Amino acid sequence: AQAISAQGSWQDESHQQPPHAMFLCSGGCNDVGRSAMEEVVHAEPAGRRECRHCFTFPNGTEYTGQWLKGMPDGEGYQVFPDGGKYRGEFRAGKAEGRGTFEYSNGDVYTGSWVNDYAHGEGTCSRHDGSMYKGQWHRGMQDGSGTLSHNKDGSFPLQQQWLYQGDFLDDAFHGKGTLSWADGRCYEGQWSNGKMHGEGLYVFPDGRRYEGQFEND
Fold it and tell me: Is residue 75 part of a domain?
């Protein structure tokens, strides 16, 4: 019981919030693009068309890049009203393929996109000092990955730590190892961000507890 009750910081660490969907050109990229194409591009109607200058949508989003059938398609660069920036591949008006999104809060995601979501393999560096590298599913950390936090501080949540293992819906879930710079380490089963199931916990002084954990 002592080994379990001595810790409690991993629950928040396991729910580091990543960037989710971008929702590019929300509410009118398709229609607006179709009506404005003749003013901004020159190319064959059936082919991919290159934008000659920056085009601004009614919602304030600016886009420069390739078009197809009235929508961003191919390589492009998009700047949002809140300061967010995406550079990469588009398909039918949405982020699809490889790309980098710089969020207005300082977070940066580079990797695979599907239907405007971070999806597949990608890396996200966050302004709070944390970094996730691994698999994503519809904008959420999901699958195998590594999450680290590299800023020191006086509180447990601010200390350096590293998690390597499985994720589900942004949380530690499955099998994984969480280690801290002060020598603490837990290796075992996780469920929804909590130690749950068979596991091994090691204290900074070398003491060990091995056994069952339940929602700790």
Answer: yes
